[in-house]
Amino acid sequence: MEERAFGRSGQRASVVGLGTWQLGADWGDVDEKEALAVLEAAVESGVTFFDTADVYGDGLSEQTIARFLSGRPDPDILVATKMGRRVDQIPENYVLDNFRAWNDRSRRNLGVDRLDLVQLHCPPTPVYSTDEVFDALDTLVAEERIAAYGVSVETCAEALTAIARPGVAGVQIILNPFRMKPLREVLPAAQEAGVGIIARVPLASGLLSGKYTKDTVFPANDHRTYNRHGESFDQGETFSGVDYESGVEAAVEFAGLAPEGFTPAQLALRWIIQQPGVTTVIPGARSPEQARANAAAAGLPELSEDTLTAIRDLYDRRIKEQVEGRW
User: Fold this and answer.
1) What is the rounded distance in angstroms from the CA atom of residue 139 to the CA atom of residue 113?
2) H helices then E strands: how many in the chain?
3) CA dist., res. 77 & res. 74, Å (int)
4) What per-residue confidence (pLDDT) applies to 6?
5) Of residues 127, 80, 83, the one with CA closest to residue 101
6) pLDDT digit string, tens, across residues 12-38
7) At CA 316, angle to CA 311 and CA 321, rounded to 5?
8) pLDDT, tens digit (0-9, with 9 covering 90-100), for 256-282
């Protein structure tokens, strides 16, 4: 699989990575055997980038990755984790002592002395403008606790503030055919600054897979049930902030744009891969089959201009008004 340079860090990542939120919690029940099989299928398909967080299953996702990697003598996998969501979301909590404590925990969970990449996990907006926060992250690098750092953001404005920081190696942001604003505002700035882009929520929480109808019922412990209106965390993390019923309708139209040989999910992933400035896209997978199908998007033909135009038209007509003013 194609690998791309990961911003200023000198690291590299497969153009399709694996998001592992679902291996920890918030997407229904987690089966360890199946989780390890997903990781195996992804690596066998050429994936060299895993994204996790200390809060996914309160460390379960990190620990599962550690168990998987412990059985591989030379995995050559870049593991990115995130920190900051296990405490009250106030700027005062983003200080060096807490960073060290969170870092210690993630290093234990992942079974490593130094973390490859640590991202602030969608912190309060003022954090991105606080010099002391980035001084503290630089200290973690100097102490060889982490090799590089970045941020995960909710809004384009937060992304642009982070990109201006000289030590930021990567920015993780929601980017998919139902969330196009970053194309205009964020990706060009990241390219100019040499900052990597991790595209998350690439399938709009599964909407773009074309599998769901208005009658689909998700488990009670699935964020697509309990966070549909932002009850537990930012609404944009669930269905990209798109209203579910209108999103299902738009997803049906989107699926109809898939060229021969593409699934709707692969269409969404291929669209993201083609955007200038994207380093890696991190779909999740609940089964080995999903992991393989997601990775296969990297090898599909580039989308035609007609298809790209039709996707943009769909976004402009059905989605843009719902999301651009907020994120």
Assistant:
1) 15
2) 13, 10
3) 9
4) 84
5) 83
6) 999 999 999 988 876 667 788 999 999
7) 140
8) 999 999 999 999 999 999 999 999 999
Could you give the percent of the chain with pLDDT greater than 70? Answer: 98
Residue 96 confidence (pLDDT) above 70: yes
User: pLDDT grade, residue 72 (50/70/90)?
Assistant: confident
List b or e across 295-313, with b for residues whose CB sees 16 or more CB atoms inside 10 angstroms: bbbbebeebeeebbebbee
What average pLDDT does range 210-231 have in this prediction? 94
* Burial class of residue 201, CB neighbours in 10 A (0-12, 13-18, 19+): buried
Give the DSSP letter string of 164-232: TSTTEEEEEEE-BTTB-HHHHHTHHHHHHHT-EEEEESTTTTTGGGT---TT----TTBHHHHTTTSSS
pLDDT band at 10 (very low <50, low <70, confident <90, very high): confident
Contact 83, 120 (CB under 8 A): yes
**Long-range contacts from 62-67, C-beta under 8 angstroms, 24+ separation:** 62/24, 62/106, 62/109, 62/110, 63/109, 63/110, 64/20, 64/23, 64/24, 64/32, 64/35, 64/36, 64/39, 65/20, 65/23, 65/39, 65/110, 66/109, 66/110, 66/111, 66/112, 67/36
CA distance 298 to 268: 11
Distance CA 325, CA 322 (A): 7
For residues 171 and 119, what is the distance between their CA atoms, to the nearest angstrom?
8
DSSP 237-264: GSGGG--HHHHHHHHHHHHTTPPTT--H
Q: Which token pair is 215?
A: 């009658």
CA distances from 225 to 5, 245, 271 (A): 37, 13, 27
Which residues lie closer than 8 Å to 68 by C-beta, 6 or more apart? 36, 39, 40
